[in-house]
Structures are given as structure tokens and as C-alpha cells.
Amino acid sequence: MPSYDISLPISDSMWRYQPGWENTIYALSDTNQGDTDSVYRFNLCSHTGTYIESAGHKLANQSSLNELPISAFVQLDTLLLQVTPAADGCITLKEFETALSIHAESGTALTNLILGTHWGCQHTEENYLTQAPWFQIELTQHLASLPLHILGVDTPVIDNQQHPYDPVRQLFKANQGLLLLAPLNLPRDLPSGRYQLDCAPLKIIDVSAAPCRPVLSKD
């Protein structure tokens, strides 16, 4: 069974959403420097690398990630759809529906979904956030109407940064059981289709988001 690590690597020099959300990773002791042990300190933002978040990221009085059973994160039948954004970066409802019509299996519920745009293979360090693909309002409204458990994306934002409308809040308000998995690092040649997804977060108490290392597997 081939497996694909679809997580982003974490370092203290990586991109961040905003100032103050930087990582600091350093050795408290290091055998390469003559110490008896190698021990590291990780000062990480919850939204670093690839992370998974619950409705508590946007809404009050929600369950923490650690309150969910491990079955919420492992051995999940998941549909990966590779879609092509428009020239301005917009992922449209029409593009989503076209991809879905080709790859969806009749009678199979759409519960866990990953939308890939190849952004992880195309971006530069400078434009990773500023020019990232985003969701058309109609696409957000449609996804909000679906009984999704996991929604994964390979873009660090899904909002229109020129005309923000806060799609993540809309998704969580419509479906408070939704888990958002982002941003993913999908291999360029990974085709659309059905996969098994494992995406357990770090078991940190009383948080709504945490880093994770998602893996897709194919029979």
C-alpha cells in the first residue's frame, strides 16, 4: 500500500501567518557539541506547518481537539480532488462540481474531502500567502451545506484576500463538527481519487488547533 506524507516541514525559518507567530527551535543540549544528551525546545504556533483545527478556532464554547476520539482522525475514507483555480486564484463552484462529477462514486457519501490546487508545487517563498488560491463564495456556501467531517486544502488561506468574507467562520458556523486540515503539501503527480487519510494532531489539552503529520494511503 503506497503512502504519501502530505505535511509541510516545520522549521524556525519557515513562513508564518503574521508577526508574532514565529517558531523558535533550538537545542538545549547537543551531543554534537560534546553534551551527554541531545534535547530540543520547540516554541511553535498552533498554526504552523500542517495543522488541524476545530470550530473553536472561530467560535466560542466548542469542544477541544483532545476531546475527540482517535477514530475522528485515522483510517478515514477520503476523496482527493485536484482542481484548477482561475487566473485570479479563485477556486469556483463550477470547477469543484466538474471534478466531483468525474471522480465521485455513485452512492458513496462525501464525508472527508481534500481539495488540491498544486499550490504546494508552484508557489515561491514570497507569494505563498499573498497569492494563494482561494474559495469562491458560492463554493464555500456549497461546502458549508455538506455533512463534511474533514475538509483539507493545500493552500494556507481560502479567503479572498482582496475582498475578505471569512469563509472559515462560515464553514464552522454551518457545521460545528467540521475539522479543517491545512495547508497540505500534495505531491505534484498525486491523482484525484479515493484514499485513506490519517491526520491525528498532537494531543495537547484544551486547544482548538494543533500541528499534525497527515498521511494518505492507497490500496
List the helices and strands and how they pair.
Blueprint: E1 3-5, E2 24-29, E3 39-43, E4 51-53, E5 76-82, E6 90-91, H1 93-103, E7 112-116, H2 119-122, E8 134-135, H3 137-144, E9 150-153, H4 167-174, E10 179-182, E11 193-198, E12 209-211, E13 215-217
Helix pairs in contact: 3-4
Looking at this protein, list some descriptive labels.
219 residues; alpha/beta; Glucose Oxidase, domain 1; two-stranded antiparallel ribbon; 13 strands
Alpha-beta content class: alpha/beta
Give me the CATH fold name: Glucose Oxidase, domain 1
Outline, from the CA principal axes?
Answer: globular
Over the alpha carbons, how many angstroms does the gyration radius reach? 18 Å
The H-level CATH homologous superfamily, spelled out, is: Putative cyclase
Averaged pLDDT, please?
A: 95
Taking the sheet with the most strands, its summary is: 9 strands, mixed
What is the H/E string?
EEEEEEHEHEHEHEEEE
Number of domains: 1
The proportion of residues forming helix, as a percent range, comes to 10-25%
The count of DSSP E runs of length 2 or more, i.e. the number of strands, is 13
Give the class-level CATH name: Alpha Beta
Unreliable stretches (pLDDT < 50, length at least 5) are none
How are strands sequenced across the largest beta sheet? 1-13-11-5-7-9-10-4-12
Identify the CATH architecture. Answer: 3-Layer(bba) Sandwich
